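Residues determine shape. Next comes a sample protein:
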Amino acid sequence: MSISYIPRVTQLDSVQLDEQVEDLFKQLLFNATKFLEPGILQPILPELELLLRTWIFKYSLCNKKCTFGQEMLSLKYDTTNLSKSKLYWYYGYTIGLRYLKDRALYSLTSNIKVQSFCTKLETFQLIGDIFNFLRFIQTGKYPVLIDFILGLELTADKLAREDLTDLSWTRELLWHNLIELIGTVVSLVNLFGLKRKLSNTLKYVWWRKHVRSIGGEKSPTMTINTTCACCSNKPANKAADPEFECPKCYFNGNVITKFSIT
């Protein structure tokens, strides 16, 4: 008889075990080829990782209907809902997309559009992982986003960790995964561009409020006696750069009526 309820920490452990198994195989591969000349494997590294992940997929999920990490904890996918088409989609999402991204990063390093697209794609994927993790904390199902998309549910005939009672350790593991996901997303965000856009927005809001409060409907006029509010000198910077902004009030003077001597 299969068990319907599987603790969240057991499901998270299976995900982390899968990552550790892949890292272990990579380490064995690198140790086996460490005596080769430097640079031989570097150009085909994405293909080597593709073959390695394909081998793991073939002898775990494809043959046994469960990953190596799930098998270690006596878990498996519900075979009644695991069709061959879903296996193809699972492979394409977890392995195929990852290979295309790695190959693009290796071969098209100088292509700014491709690099930007890969970064945005990875950001959206990580944001999806965060929302899925929040949903997983609430429902206790589908610890991985692709499981939720394909509707793959975990079952078990027995639990290898059914005596787990340390709730504080479980809570710490859940928070660790959430903080790690959020930290990864934040690291991919263009903080400098976001800061610039936010600063421009705040300056515009401040200027609009300032002009309405002190200027009314009267438009400012630049005369021969006009001086800079910062350095008290004539606005030479404005003459050299039409987009120059006052460092105090951020006004650029594009809409003022300039004074001319005839």
